Amino acid sequence: MKRRSIIRGLGVLPWSLLPLLSCASRNNAVPGQEWDAIPLKQSSSGERDAELLALARKRIEKIRKGNLRLVIKENGRALADSSFEIRHIRHEFRFGTTVISESDGEGKMDAETYKLYQAFNSITAKCYWNERWHFPIEKEEGKRMYEGFENEMSFGLKQGLEVKGHPLIWTVPKGLPEWLLKYPVEERLSKMLAHAGDLVNRYKGNVHTWDLCNEFLWEPSLNHTEQRVWPHLESIPEILTYLEPGIRHIRKQDPLARLVLNEYGLEKDFTKGVTAKQQRLRYLELIEEMRKRNCLPDAIGTQCHVAEPFSMEEIQTSLDELATSGLPLQITEFWARTSKDRNENIQADEKTLEYIRNAYTIGFGHPSVEHFTYWGGDLLEKTGKPGPKGKALLKLLTEEWTTQSALQTDKYGGTDCSAFFGEYALFKDKKEVGRFHFSQKKKEEVVEVNL
């Protein structure tokens, strides 16, 4: 009921009257990445942010941890009155990244960088149909190039990471091959579906999650590509002229694939005439219509990056409203850069590092969020080693949000402790003797390890 009341509150907005301003005319953002615009109003922080962070920390203890009852056996017999140690390896929650330097794809990294990658459990590999500076799949018609995507995919798999492909569909002009525009709309759609279906089929079994579509709330449909003037706000039925057949086609190629919608501009206003609130409501309206048509995605994402930091209240508000969709949430492309350094701002000050810690705390502490990806190469220095941002994130994931505990079994071979959900290694006399998974879905069950 709450979801429906929010959507009804949208009313009939005069989208046709919204000023279609060109972002490039008022800032240095490249057309097609207007999320890089400086927001219209700077964030304020204070007591409310502090309250939300305190609440998130309490939620982390409640929703990301459970009471682990571990029973240890050897040859089927309980090991009573024995000393062990457990060490948390990876979270069950999906902490993700991208391939964060070109050398990583070749497998060349030092121990610190390897440790940083091992703190994650998901990696986003880029499979753009066409994009200016990433590896295009089909810049020239009929010449499919998979090497760039496969290098990133293979690197992730080699590190033991779940691979997420990004994106299957993206109608922004820089995401569409120029040759596509010589075709009528019906053929454009057919070729787009063929492109997406080819990727899903080709990598079935290696890639289980895909960003189905990027930035549909801001961009034209295939019917209106040539008329694009950002922000191009299509109606919900018009968005579904390509999104609905897209999701249905991909479901046929791989029924087990996990499909995510990926959007930006949901936390902060950064162009006149379109608010983040309006876009969140349109997102919910879209999901409600997809529910009626029985073509829902598996999760919805917010990119959560812009040229200036968000307040924690802005992030929390966005997540709370999106959660009324009833679908899991993903923070898909987070970064911590500022307009002072429009490149990658690798040498972060303490304020930026605090922003990373706080944003992750809000996301990890939100009950609807299942995935949080740090996007871009600014986790590493030019040397290839973790920089200040990488070190801050590594400390958060492996020192603060971790469980390492010495345990003593009782006469039944059992032992109890509070632990984060995820993968664990079991040690006896400083030697690893076993591994186990502590799942949130089975948190009431006893975890049994046979040595």
> What's the average pLDDT?
89
Q: Quick one: CATH superfamily of the largest domain?
A: Glycosidases
Briefly, what CATH class of the largest domain?
Alpha Beta
Q: In order across it, which strands form the biggest sheet?
A: 4-5-6-8-9-10-11-12
Report the span from N to C terminus: 50 Å
Number of helices: 10
Task: Please mark out the parts with pLDDT under 50 across 5 or more consecutive residues, or reply none.
Answer: 1-28
| Percent range for β-strand residues | 15-25%
Examine the coordinates and then state which fold CATH places here, giving the name of the CATH topology of the largest domain: TIM Barrel
SSE topology string: HHEEEEHEHEEHEHEHEHEHEHEEEEE
Query: What is the name of the CATH architecture of the largest domain?
Result: Alpha-Beta Barrel
Secondary structure: number of strands: 17
Using only C-alpha atoms, the radius of gyration works out to: 23 Å
Please, could you describe this protein's structure?
The chain has an eight-stranded parallel barrel with strand order 4-5-6-8-9-10-11-12, surrounded by four helices. Strands 1, 2, 14 and 17 form a four-stranded mixed beta sheet that branches. The protein has a four-stranded antiparallel beta sheet with strand order 13-3-15-16, with no helix packed on it. 31% of the residues lie in helices and 22% in strands. It is an alpha/beta fold and 451 residues long. It is built from ten helices and 17 strands. Mean pLDDT is 89; it is low at 1-28. The protein folds into two domains: 2-11 and 93-400, TIM Barrel, CATH 3.20.20.80; 63-84 and 406-450, no CATH class. The longest helix is centred in the middle third of the chain and has 18 residues, at 185-202.
